[in-house]
Design brief:
With about 220 residues, the chain is α/β, with parallel strands linked by helices. Helix content is about 35%, strand content about 20%. It has one domain: 3-Layer(aba) Sandwich (Rossmann fold), CATH 3.40.50.1820. Helix 1 crosses helix 5.
Amino acid sequence: MASPASTDRAPALSDLWLPVQARALALVLHGGAEQSRRPVNGTSLSWHRARVLARTVASEVNESGVGVALLRYCVKGWNASPGREPDPVVDARWALGELAACHGLPVVLVGHSMGARTAVAVADHPSVLGVVALAPWLPNDDPVAPLAGKVLRAAHGRKDRITSYDATAAFVHRAQHGADAELTDMGDLGHYLLRGARAWNRFASCGVEKILTDR
């Protein structure tokens, strides 16, 4: 399957930790900015943070047969515009198509910040069982419909000054009408998954395993 060609560079599944007999996959989606056409490259802090997260999650779940893949977007921004899906959503749909074609396994999406917003938007893909959302960016007017019949496990810290705990709580409440949705309060943790990294990593790993077990 070809990569989308509408932006500056192609998206890539930049890392893949795959056990010999995989039973499922976790696709990790990194954060970004509301608007930016700058390409995601090796200097991107959001991608680097997600790479550390993905590697750590893989060390926890590979033994139970769960592979982990990391998507690198074309560009850094959400870049919403009328009549087309935001850039990372296009990239995530491409990645899910690639994983379905190559592996045909159920997928749990793990997203941080804009990556969590992206994960929710593509949760309607048939291979997706659920979403683990870390410090998510979930505006009040974003639809919950893609989560219908799926699982959402969100975690947010009260000292997050980049995205809103209250907005996440409101989104989870709306999602509960059609999805199995829960919010975990991460207390005094902030946005970037640095302080309390062990707790964030554990939430992500356990969230992936729990969704796969319950589904």
